[in-house]
Amino acid sequence: MTSRFDPALIPAAPDLQWERSLWENGFEHVAGIDEAGRGAWAGPVAAAAVIFPSYFLPPNQPLLIRDSKQLNAAKRYTLEPLIKELALAWAVGFSSNEEIDAYGILPATRLAMARALELLGTAPQHLLIDALLLPEIPFSQTALIKGDQRSLSIAAASILAKTARDRCMEEEARKSPGYAFERNKGYGTRAHQAALFDQGPCQAHRFSFAPLKHTIK
Asked: Of 160, 104, 155, whose CA–CA distance to 144 is shortest?
């Protein structure tokens, strides 16, 4: 039987409860990891890793770091440089739409996470990952359900992954006009669906995704 997640476990805002527990048990470098773009029809999937200094104390003013989906674009872009300044280490990795088509979205997401870890520069001792495990990565790790709402490190990673991917899709909009990627970021909005019907897909689309299989001309 599958156990259900208890919403009462979600704090009012992401905090450092999980990180502190790990720090107290000797894990000095704890990396929070999250992704952006798994459900999009076009573009890469992005993943970010963020390590805050051990026993990190947030500034006196509220950080307002939340799951990226709970923030608008302006707030995400405002928080991005602050997260990078406060972090001991951070990095973003990507898997392309071609890799998504070749391997599947979940393996491609794990690949993007592995690439972020490779770019960190500081080796983590434990990974806090939003709802996933990385079985091929030789670090101790925790798959934290609703992690982007519970862990400050994961929430910070969700913001960096989202802002990095959004910039990629804005660049893709210049390469492939007509799909409004600068607005929909590759997700299946009505305007995106209409463009697919009128123009067919472009090189940025994920052809393995069901909506694309019926639009190829």
From this structure: 155
Q: CATH no. for residue 146?
A: 3.30.420.10
| Structure-token match 């689309």, residue found | 205
Kindly report whether the global pTM for this prediction surpasses the value 0.90.
yes
Helical H runs in the chain? 17-24, 73-86, 97-103, 105-119, 147-150, 152-175, 181-184, 190-199, 210-213
Q: Which helix (H) or strand (E) holds 90?
A: strand 89-95
Do residues 148 and 54 touch, judged by C-beta distance below 8 A?
no
| Structure tokens that stand for 146 in this block | 């609703």
Q: Please report, for residues 3, 70, 163, 165, the alpha-carbon distance to residue 74 in angstroms, rounded to integers and kept in the order given.
A: 37, 12, 10, 15
**Is position 119 within any domain?**
yes
pLDDT tens, residue by residue, 132-167:
999 999 999 999 999 999 999 999 999 999 999 999
Asked whether residue 23 is assigned to any structural domain, the reply reads yes
21 lies in a domain?
yes
